[in-house]
Amino acid sequence: MGLFNHFKNKNNIKSYFNQADRFMEYGDYKEALRCYNQILELIPENSTALYNKAWLLSELGSFNESLECYDKFLELKPKDSDGWLNRGNTLNLLGRFDEALRSFDKALKISPFCDYAWLSKGLSYKELGMFDEALTIDPSNSNVLHAKALIFDRLKMFDEALEYYDKFLRLDPDNIGGWNNKCTILGKMGNFNEALNCFDKALILDPNDGSLY
Q1: Backbone dihedral angles phi then psi of residue 134, each to the nearest 5 degrees
Q2: Is residue 184 part of a domain?
Q3: Is the Cβ–Cβ distance between 180 and 167 less than 8 Å?
């Protein structure tokens, strides 16, 4: 009987995941959430279901519940950079920017070149009004310079973004992500020769980086 229930639960879980995928494709987040709840009733520590439930709750505006799910997920997967990133984004949405920064730092410790984590960290700094203060206290703070460059890029303020990438790369000239991002901005500005030079520098630093091709 136990073996029968095991296979029955396994089939049910697979079915619920498939249903959730379809509901996600159709944008029916509430029904997708119902499927993940069914999975978690059967296996409370299913990390995939917890992660997806957390994301859905955030999309549906239930930020505190989302945060609880991310916390449970990260107890199971403490080295998942996406989990820390999305936890930080949820904290940003709750206005808890100091806590969000700590989550982004954990994400960046695991994935140092994650642009989304740098961007989200920059947004936290912006909300806290800490950019200029941080730069005044430590003008060689490469993390802040990188975050500010990403913010200006997102705002399509490319001249300002380029200025901060130049400052950032003077401090960290071997940062492939910085050269790659500067290349992208120069391309958006139509400066293709300069963009190619940046691409070449990134390629010299790591000729095996598939993201450069």
Answers
A1: -65, -40
A2: yes
A3: no
Instruction: For residue 131, give Cα distances in angstroms to 108, 115, 163.
Output: 18, 18, 15
Task: Round to whole Å and give the CA distance between 180 and 64.
Answer: 36
What is the number of other CB atoms lying within 10 angstroms of the CB of residue 203? Answer: 16
- Domain span holding position 153: 137-213
- Residue 98 inside a domain? The answer is no
DSSP category for residue 211 = G
Domain at 160, CATH number: 1.25.40.10
Instruction: State residue 5's pLDDT score.
Output: 45
pTM for this entry? 0.74
pLDDT digits (tens, 9 = 90+) for 5-54: 444 566 789 999 999 999 999 999 999 999 999 999 999 999 999 999 99
Total domain count for the chain?
Answer: 1
> In one letter, which amino acid is 121?
K
pLDDT tens for each residue of 63-92: 999 999 999 999 999 999 999 999 999 999
